[in-house]
Structures are given as structure tokens and as C-alpha cells.
TrEMBL record:
The keyword Transferase applies. GO terms for cellular component: cytoplasm. InterPro entries: Citrate_synth-like_lrg_a-sub, Citrate_synth-like_sm_a-sub, Citrate_synthase, Citrate_synthase_AS, Citrate_synthase_bac-typ, Citrate_synthase_sf, Citrate_synthase_typ-I. This is Citrate synthase. Belongs to the citrate synthase family. SUPFAM superfamilies: Citrate synthase (SSF48256). Keywords: Transferase, Tricarboxylic acid cycle. The lineage of its organism: Bacteria, Pseudomonadati, Pseudomonadota, Alphaproteobacteria, Rhodospirillales. It catalyses: oxaloacetate + acetyl-CoA + H2O = citrate + CoA + H(+). It comes from Magnetospirillum moscoviense.
Amino acid sequence: LDVFTYDPGYTSTGSCKSAITYIDGDEGVLLHRGYAIADLAENCEFLDVAYLILKGELPNVEQKAKFENDITHHSMLNEQISFFYRGFRRDSHPMAVMCGVVGAMAAFYHDSTDINDPHQRMIASYRLIAKMPTVVGWAYKYSQGQPFMYPQNKLSYSENFLRMMFATPCEEYVPNPILTRAMDRILILHADHEQNASTSTVRLAGSSGANPFACIAAGIASLWGPAHGGANEAVLTMLHEIGSVDRIPEFIKKAKDKDDPFRLMGFGHRVYKNYDPRAKIMAQTCHEVLDELGVKDEPLLKLAMELERIALEDEYFVQRKLFPNVDFYSGIIFRAMGIPTTVFTCLFALARTVGWIAQWNEMLTDADQKIGRPRQLYVGAGPRPYVPLDKRG
Ligand code: CMC
């Protein structure tokens, strides 16, 4: 007899064991390899956290230098991939371009197909982490009709990314340390989050032994939706739609109306039922970035803060333990930095690549893991005789 648990949305199904990320949703705790997210965001560069997530420990001085060197030397995309970009319409959503380009990378790095070789797995991991800023930078440049910028190894990971986004071949790029720091922090806050939809997608795709670039492309596709990584874009769209503080009650009412599909974007989380620790750091970073850029009285920030205040006092949100999540303030920072709304989720994907690839590696070395294969509750027709075409009504 087949016995299984019916659990739509896997709300109570543990699909794996993992030593990477720990979340206590009731207490608002998020740890990577045992380190609190606030400590990592405060003290680390993104590549330190990438190393930690991938390898289990923070790097020492030599390990840090070697890892940075290894990553920077994989940051270039095969030149042939630039032609792949040119197949897209200029007005394509950059996430659509990302799904396509990262999937296409499976056709370029043939040694990465040997997923049973730990060395090849690590090279595939380095390639993905290293090339993702170039992939996103080029997706943005392509959308603008500007020339692609090539990575520069002397720059840090975040500097390099910001340069590929905002520099042109005609102008020397001068990194702004505050913006670089903010970008590092934003990437750290998004680096991993245990078995969310996109990470589970990467694991499920990888459980069949699929190519790592193809698995990460699947993760990018899953992240795109507004209930997941696409929420950062959706928050900005929503704030623009609300438009002014006096319209907030109207939208709060819509969010509470069960006949209206509208939800307060950037609010709520499957696991956090107290607060999202990433959101606190993101709100603080938002103020720092706006100060640095000399943005005074940013109307969208005022609107977001007022929306948060009103929602947190509303019984509907209190009862359901709905708090701002990581995506609530990130879009305001991105916008202030000059990043267009459609690129927001690409930044989430860039950062989450570290978590995806670490979880993929962990799965492939876990003897308990099998091909992912959920069961179903069949609710269709019972057995019945075949009806020939001329007898069908
Ligand atoms: N606005 C209004 N009501 C909400 C919201 C919201 N943002 N989120 C949840 N609810 C209500 C929901 O209608 C339900 O009410 P009831 O019990 O009366 O039917 C209750 O709260 C529980 O919601 P749920 O949909 O069962 O919760 P879930 O765990 O399945 O969904 C979520 C989690 C994040 C998908 C959901 O809160 C949501 O859609 N939020 C908005 C999108 C968003 O901000 N996503 C980013 C998540 S954090 C970044 C990431 O890791 O991707």
C-alpha cells in the first residue's frame, strides 16, 4: 500500500539535511554555518561569505587571497556568449535573458558535466559565482543598447559588478566605497536561505544528475516569481501604484480582502513569524545609502516607512504575523543606486547563486539523497473504456 503525506507547498516536509544555513523563524534568527547574519553583514565582504557558505569556514588570510584570485580569473564570459545576448530583443526582461544565458553556459563548459569529480564541481561553482556579475551587467547593458563592459581583476567583486553596470568604455570608473560596501551587504543578505523555492528547484533539478549551469538556470526561473525573488521588483511597482501616503489605507484594505488577489509585496514569509533579520539590516543600509547619495526626503522611502508602520498596527497583519521581509527595502536602495526595477531580481539571483551552488554540492555528496520525486493525490477519473473518435459527444 502506498502511504505518503499530502503536503502542498511542502509546509512540513523536510527534503534534506543541510549544514549550511539555520533559521529559527519564531525568534528571527538566521545563521550561515553558525555565524549570525548581522555579524557577517557588518564585518565581511561578499566573497568571504561565499567562501563560508561553499566551504564551511571563513577563509584565513591565504585562503581569502587564493579564493579572490580564483574567482576573479573566472569572471570573463566566453566571447561567443555575447552573440547569444544579441539574439534577445532589447526590451526583454533581464531575468528572461539571465535564464537563457545561464542555461546556455552548459553548452560552453563541457568539463562541468563531470559532476562526480569534486574538482570539476568546484570549478563549476567558481565559474558560476565569478561569471554572474558579468551575466547581469551584460543583461543590463544590452537592455540599454550600451557596449558590454569586461571584468577587471584588480577590482573587488562588488566594485567590478558596479563598474560593469555603470561604466562605459569612454570613462574611467571611480568606485564609491559606501556604495561598494552597501552592494556587498545586500549580496550577503541574499546569499542563502535554506530550502526556499529556488534552492529546492536547484536541488530537484540536480538530483537527476543534471548539468550545474542548467540547474542554476532552473533556480533563476523559480526565483523570478513575485512570491519569491521577484518581490523586490513588485514592491517598487506597488509603491509607485500607491503613490502617496493618503492612499495607504485603500491598499491595506485591498490586501486584507480575500476576494482581491492583491497582497502587500515585501510582507510576510513562510518561515519568519517574528521578523526577518535581513529586513532590519536592509532598512539600515537603505538610510546609509540615501545619506551617502545626498537623497533627502525620498518620497518612496517615506511611503514605505509609513506603510510598514500602518501595517504593523493592523490586526490582520499582527494576527497572521506578517512583517516586512528582505525585499521590502532593497528596491529603494537599488533605485537610489540607479539600478532599474527590472534588474532588481537579477541582483537577488547573482547573490543567491552562492547558496544554490553550495546546496547543489552538498546534495551531491549526501549519501541519503535520491532523485527528487514527490508523490501526488490523484483526483481524476477512474478507469473507463476507450471511446472511439466518432462516438465522442
Ligand atoms: N499581504 C496580505 N496578506 C498576506 C500576505 C501579504 N503580503 N502574505 C500572507 N498573507 C496572508 C494570506 O492571505 C493568509 O491569510 P489567511 O490565513 O487569512 O488565508 C496568511 O497571510 C498566510 O499566508 P500564506 O500565503 O498561507 O503564507 P505562505 O507562507 O504560503 O506565503 C509568502 C509566504 C512570502 C509567499 C507570502 O507572505 C506573500 O505572498 N508575500 C508577498 C510576496 C513577498 O514579499 N515575497 C518575498 C518573500 S521573502 C524573499 C524570498 O525569500 O523570496
